[in-house]
């Protein structure tokens, strides 16, 4: 594919980071496929457990369901492309598919942070204002909150990066395994200040604002917990720990994504340079179901009851 002069002539990009891995592509394919299926199964199981058990039809668990749906969405935006490219000789991806992947990935990133902010707010109301919790966090309001999170995240991407759709490209080689917007912008014939402004606006709207709301919620929870009983402190720690770990893990992923390992550390192996920017996309979708599934007592108990019922049904059929 030759380097084209403008976006209307550029029909595809080449994902150059795949290189020639030879027979290892079969091993990589199996590893990626197992990891992707494990993410889908783990998150789906958690969604089903919450859906089946009416005792889990509470705001906190409804928000958790939304988080699990987003983990599947983010993974599906990445892994099918990785798998398809393993056996491709040209490693080409159409411009429209590249833009679609960017939209899904960045929308999912914003949904993740906003959902964690909503969950932190839910914990703040539950711990700091327990008597008005059912009034403030009723079911209708929770579903409205989830809808607003998705609409807000999609619009924040569109308003920040819609200019990419009309860029003129003077190259089509992307040194990555997926469609990274920063690398695509570098291929444009003229990079304006709009690119920098878009990155800043998206970071403020989709990262700093949700992170600040999350931080404020937990600081207020910490203030209240210092004055309460030991039992209430333990309950707060149990319910808030998975969210704090999730937020911390996302922050680490964002840092890795912002660092340009090609220019910062030339000694870093090529595989590490590819994996680290995708840290959050690789580990966060698996962290969520395991952190919440094994750490929240209600979900753990519900899963055990669900497993026992299934075993009984199987024995009865036999």
UniProtKB/TrEMBL annotation:
Q: Does the keyword Disulfide bond apply?
A: yes
Which cellular compartments is it found in? Answer: Cell membrane
Record bears the keyword Plastid: no
The cross-references to InterPro entries, in alphabetical order and at most eight, read:
GPCR1_Superfamily_Member, GPCR_Rhodpsn, GPCR_Rhodpsn_7TM, Olfact_rcpt
Task: Quote the Pfam families the UniProt record gives.
Answer: 7tm_4
Spans traversing the lipid bilayer: 26-49, 61-82, 94-121, 142-164, 200-219, 240-259, 274-294
Which domain of life, per UniProt?
Answer: Eukaryota
The signal sequence is none
Cellular component terms (Gene Ontology): plasma membrane
The residues covered by the G-protein coupled receptors family 1 profile domain are 42-292
Membrane topology category:
Multi-pass membrane protein
What keywords tag this UniProt record? Cell membrane, Disulfide bond, G-protein coupled receptor, Glycoprotein, Membrane, Olfaction, Receptor, Sensory transduction, Transducer, Transmembrane, Transmembrane helix
The terms under GO molecular function for this entry are:
G protein-coupled receptor activity; odorant binding; olfactory receptor activity
Principal cellular location given in the protein's record = membrane
Family, as annotated? Belongs to the G-protein coupled receptor 1 family.
Q: What is this protein called?
A: Olfactory receptor
The record lists the organism as Oreochromis aureus (Israeli tilapia)
Q: What is the lineage of its organism?
A: Eukaryota, Metazoa, Chordata, Craniata, Vertebrata
């Amino acid at each position: 594919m030759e380097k084209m002069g403008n976006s209307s002539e550029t029909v595809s990009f080449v994902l150059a980071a795949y290189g020639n891995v030879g027979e290892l592509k079969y091993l990589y394919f199996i590893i990626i496929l197992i990891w992707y299926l494990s993410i889908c199964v783990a998150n789906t199981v958690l969604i089903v457990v919450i859906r089946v058990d009416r005792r889990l039809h509470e705001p906190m668990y409804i928000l958790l369901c939304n988080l699990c749906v987003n983990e599947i969405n983010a993974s599906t935006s990445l892994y099918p492309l990785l798998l398809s490219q393993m056996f491709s000789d040209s490693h080409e991806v159409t411009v429209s598919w590249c833009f679609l992947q960017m939209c899904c990935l960045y929308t999912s990133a914003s949904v993740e942070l906003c959902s964690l902010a909503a969950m932190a707010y839910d914990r703040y109301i539950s711990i700091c204002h327990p008597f008005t919790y059912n009034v403030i966090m009723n079911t209708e309001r929770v579903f409205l909150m989830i809808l607003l999170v998705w609409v807000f995240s999609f619009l924040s991407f569109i308003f920040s990066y819609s200019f990419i759709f009309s860029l003129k490209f003077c190259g089509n080689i992307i040194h990555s395994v997926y469609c990274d917007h920063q690398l695509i912008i570098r291929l444009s014939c003229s990079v304006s200040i709009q690119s920098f402004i878009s990155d800043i606006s998206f970071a403020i709207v989709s990262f700093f604002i949700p992170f600040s709301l999350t931080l404020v919620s937990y600081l207020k929870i910490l203030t209240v917990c210092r004055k309460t009983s030991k039992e209430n402190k333990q309950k707060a720690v149990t319910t808030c720990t998975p969210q704090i770990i999730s937020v911390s893990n996302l922050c680490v992923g964002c840092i890795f994504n912002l660092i340009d390992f090609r220019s910062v550390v030339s000694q870093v192996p090529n595989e590490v340079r590819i994996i680290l920017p995708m840290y959050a996309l690789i580990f966060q979708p698996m962290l969520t179901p395991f952190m919440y599934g094994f750490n929240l007592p209600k979900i753990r108990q519900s899963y055990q009851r669900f497993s026992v019922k299934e075993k009984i049904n199987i024995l009865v059929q036999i």
